[in-house]
Design a protein that fits this description.
This is Leishmanolysin family protein, putative. It holds the Pfam family EGF_Tenascin. It comes from Ichthyophthirius multifiliis (White spot disease agent). It is an enzyme of class 3 (hydrolase). It is a single chain. With 193 residues, the protein is mainly beta. Helix content is 7%, strand content 34%. It contains two helices and 18 strands. The strands form seven sheets. Strands 5-4-3-1-8-6 form a six-stranded antiparallel sheet, with no helix packed on it. A two-stranded antiparallel sheet has the order 2-7. The longest helix is centred in the N-terminal third of the chain and has 7 residues. The radius of gyration is 19 Å and the shape is globular. The mean pLDDT is 86.
Length: 193
């Protein structure tokens, strides 16, 4: 059932994929999907001036060039192979620079965002391989919170600081707004870079 749903939505979860604001569906699909985000295969030009979204299942591509940031396009203008629209990212350079293979594929216990694993509940470590209902500090699972002067990162580990793209919020690293590479908190949209 889930596989058919992903196929209908033209979703692709390979290492060459990222999530887009997208309502893509195969034209043969009779189902309606209210969610507006899909993971699709993509390719960036070497100078990050173009992003091509690739739909290998239906042999179709949608290209975005500089000047088309944040623009919505029909996936298939004549609707023969696909329906729906896709929105191109706002920052091509940032989007294209983050093609990072994550550690051990996050042990299939998490997802990778900007090269760092975000672990499912009850897992931790840089690759989400440590089963832990508490926090991971120095490769050991411990109940409770991180020790003083350490911060709980998205990989459920205690570290001496928060990674780029996040800020300290009462001892826990929270993500900055997507438009920030650095922020100071307490709210995610207080960019410093």
């Amino acid at each position: 059932m889930q596989e058919k749903k992903n196929t209908d939505k033209l979703s692709n979860y390979s290492t060459q994929s990222k999530c887009f604001k997208s309502t893509a569906t195969k034209s043969s699909s009779t189902n309606q999907y209210p969610d507006v985000f899909r993971c699709h295969q993509f390719q960036c030009s070497s100078d990050a001036s173009q992003i091509t979204v690739i739909f290998p299942e239906i042999d179709l591509q949608v290209a975005y060039r500089k000047g088309e940031q944040n623009m919505q396009k029909n996936i298939d203008t004549n609707g023969e192979k696909a329906n729906g629209q896709i929105t191109c990212p706002q920052d091509y350079e940032r989007f294209c620079n983050y093609i990072i293979i994550y550690p051990n594929f996050c042990s299939q216990k998490g997802v990778c965002v900007n090269g760092q694993c975000i672990c499912q509940d009850r897992f931790g470590g840089v690759d989400c391989s440590i089963k832990c209902s508490g926090v991971v500090d120095n490769y050991n699972c411990s109940k409770g919170q991180c020790p003083q002067n350490k911060f709980l990162n998205t990989d459920n580990t205690c570290k001496s600081d928060c990674p780029s793209g996040s800020f300290d919020d009462a001892g826990k690293c929270e993500s900055c707004d997507n438009n920030c590479s650095r922020c100071k908190g307490p709210s995610a949209n207080e960019c410093t870079r």
